[in-house]
Sequence to fold (446 residues):
Amino acid sequence: MVREGEGGGGGLTAEAAPQPSALLRRVVDVREGEVRAMLVSSAYFFFVLSGWFVMRPMREAVAMATGVTRLPYLFAATLAVVLLANPLFSALVVRYPVRRFIAITYQFFVACILVFYALMTFVAPQEGSAGDLWIGRAYYVWTSVFNLFVVSIFWAFMADSFRSEQAKRLFGFIAVGGTLGSVLGSATTAQLAPVIGTPNLLLISAALIELAVLCVLRFPEQVGAHDENVARQAGLPIGGAVWAGVTNLVQSRYLLGIAGFFVLFTMGSTILYFQQADIVGQAFADREARTAVMARIELVVQSLTLVTQIFLTGRLIRWLGLSLALAFLPLVSMLGFAALGAWPTFAVVATMAVVRRAGNFALSNPSLEILFTVVPREDKYKAKNFIETFVYRTGDQVGAWGYAGLAALGLGLSGISYAAVPIAAVWLVLGLWLGRAQGRLAAERG
Fold:
């Protein structure tokens, strides 16, 4: 590998023209031998999230057209599909080397994207038809599964490639690639949806996911991670049992704590999601308008996230410590739901969605991924994937049916918002405990 900072500079000395590594180090604490891995990781995340965020506003438009009362059924269908998909993914983990099963999984999703393109273009092109309705619902369920798997696999690969100390320094910057991809994907949909139509956007998404596969295949062999990575570098399968993700989870207090954190996070996210769908669905009448406004909200979220990730994320995690970094989003949620309870308007729900999601991408999510750097390698792919797919969607179910139950009892947007405040308080306490537990495990691993 050519060292960054060495080589030609147009005849200029290092004092006259800082090399790329020196410029990077002004933003992120990246060290010798880490630059290429960090940049490829960031590019990988860029293509994954740009591909997803091209499709995300289309999914949100389907949700708003479906209506809040029917969303719990779509969430239930998503959970069922995730339950079926998990053992299939674990079987790939058992049988194939890491890069191979990641490529297989992503290319399967690309094939699904092309199927939906064909269905939306040739089977049910007219909006509002019965075929369009059912294809839209299938698309909603599939994209909800796609989103969880492609992102979970990315972060599993990162946790497997970087040790805890590296993760605290580099994950914030690596996440910048995802944020740039999110901005590009949201902007692409906002600008092109009215011009080329939503089905044609799927072809763009498929190409972006294929580029993510290329990044996986070109990832550096040596990153300076831990000894367990020798098996990955040698191209050997992880092996183990297909259901190890479940059995290892229930036997580990630490993994159960992470699972609980995800459940509480998704409960709050689902409550906010339903409130957003209700308010935005009433404020904007047609699909194109809803798609455009959701894309604009995403653009604001990702732009705010980008600034934070570039300049603050890595430093905040080190300055605050992992416990306080994990407690940030629960605290924001407590304040946000209290505000939404007092003022259930579009301005408040949009502001809360922006702040909460930007806080998640910029601080909470990189902090969560650091938690997995100290677990055994098998758990990085099996238990982690089970938590971030099935457990995550279980939290959705609790939030969805809990929301429906509270609405059936006569609680409106304000009452449901106030009910979410104590959930966020419990979430905050768990985040503080997990941060301390990760520190102890990292110290034990050296």
